[in-house]
């Protein structure tokens, strides 16, 4: 009889504990000032309000990367990372910045070919899409040199960055060295000396988040950064000629690490130019 009573009490305590956890999950606390609330679960929806750090909201629904919340005075959708205490950056440095993202290659220009037969142009396009979403959420005005799989001349890419007076131009690439398939690592490149701080900041962010081999920030004579007269860098985000790296780059988890590294580097650069 004593054992039965203990079992009943344990079940009651377990149920009460579970109920407490569920109730806690039904409310969230905003982590950053000026957190965007949108009319729908995507950056394509308009911003309909701003939440401040410390404000509490009730959760109405949740899906993939977005949570619908309300506090009685305002409602909207918030990006999940904005309520994650472990988030590595805030929107303060990126708000209202014009960022041009250049997904390298495209169309008939496939770029490097990976160990699995993958194309560099597909990797750069995927990374561009993820980076565009994250920067837009953080308040940046993002402009793309190519929004689809098509060929765009190098001159057109640089002209766009110059015309829109970009705060930063980022050309995304992946490396290859088939003669030495064990080579790996991430590098960031700049042409103009004044762009070195941007390159160093993004490189530091990438290595911090990915723990990849550090190929450093270096000066190089690449056309897209040489002919861009706004702050500009070219990132080589890994060697797709390396079989392990090729497979790793195809995972969403690692792509998110790359995005987090770039965003962290950009944010730090704008906060501490």
Describe this structure in words.
The chain has helices at residues 2-25, 120-137, 154-163, 196-210, 223-226, 243-248, 252-271; strands at 27-29, 35-38, 47-51, 56-63, 66-70, 75-79, 98-103, 141-144, 168-175, 186-190, 214-219, 232-239. With 273 residues, it is α/β, with parallel strands linked by helices. The strands form three sheets. The protein has a six-stranded mixed β-sheet with strand order 8-7-9-12-10-11, with helices on both faces. The protein has a four-stranded antiparallel β-sheet with strand order 1-4-5-6. The chain has a two-stranded antiparallel sheet with strand order 2-3. Strand 10, helix 4 and strand 11 (214-219) form a beta-alpha-beta unit. Helix 2 packs across helix 7 (252-271) and helix 4 (196-210) runs antiparallel to helix 7. Mean pLDDT is 87; it is low at 1-24 and 85-91.
The neighbouring-strand order within the major sheet is 8-7-9-12-10-11
* Rg, alpha carbons: 22 Å
Instruction: Report the sheet-strand fraction.
Output: 15-25%
CATH topology of the largest domain: Aminopeptidase
Low-pLDDT stretches are 1-24, 85-91
Number of helical regions: 7
Count the domains. 2
Considering the protein shown, what is the CATH homologous superfamily of the largest domain? Zn-dependent exopeptidases
Helix content: 25-40%
Main beta sheet: strand number and arrangement?
Answer: 6 strands, mixed
What is the average per-residue confidence, as pLDDT, rounded to a whole number?
A: 87
β-strand number: 12
Query: How are helices and strands ordered from N to C?
Result: HEEEEEEEHEHEEHEHEHH
Instruction: Note the overall shape.
Output: globular
* Text of the CATH class of the largest domain: Alpha Beta
For the termini, the CA-CA separation is 72 Å
Q: Which structural category do the helix and sheet elements fall into?
A: alpha/beta
CATH architecture of the largest domain: 3-Layer(aba) Sandwich
């Amino acid at each position: 009889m004593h054992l039965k009573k203990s079992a009943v009490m344990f079940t009651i305590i377990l149920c009460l504990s579970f109920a407490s956890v569920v109730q806690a999950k039904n409310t969230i606390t905003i982590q950053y000032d000026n957190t965007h609330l949108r009319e729908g679960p995507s950056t394509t929806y308009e911003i309909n309000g701003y939440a401040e750090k410390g404000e509490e909201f009730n959760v109405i629904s949740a899906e993939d990367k977005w949570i619908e919340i309300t506090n009685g005075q305002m409602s909207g959708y918030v990006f999940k990372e904005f309520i994650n205490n472990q988030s590595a950056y805030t929107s303060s440095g990126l708000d209202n910045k014009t960022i041009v993202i250049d997904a390298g290659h495209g169309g008939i220009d496939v770029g490097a070919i990976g160990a699995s037969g993958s194309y560099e142009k597909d990797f750069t396009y995927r990374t561009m899409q993820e980076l565009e979403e994250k920067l837009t959420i953080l308040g940046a005005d993002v402009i793309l040199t190519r929004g689809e799989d098509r060929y765009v001349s190098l001159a057109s890419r640089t002209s766009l960055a110059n015309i829109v007076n970009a705060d930063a131009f980022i050309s995304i690439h992946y490396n290859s060295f088939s003669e030495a398939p064990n080579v790996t690592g991430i590098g960031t490149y700049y042409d103009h000396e004044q762009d070195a701080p941007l390159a160093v900041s993004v490189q530091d962010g990438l290595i911090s988040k990915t723990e990849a081999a550090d190929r450093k920030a270096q000066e190089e004579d690449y056309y897209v950064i040489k002919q861009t007269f706004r702050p500009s860098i070219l990132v080589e985000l890994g060697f797709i000629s390396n079989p392990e790296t090729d497979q790793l780059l195809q995972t969403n988890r690692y792509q998110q690490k790359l995005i987090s590294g770039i965003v962290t580097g950009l944010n730090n650069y704008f906060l501490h130019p």
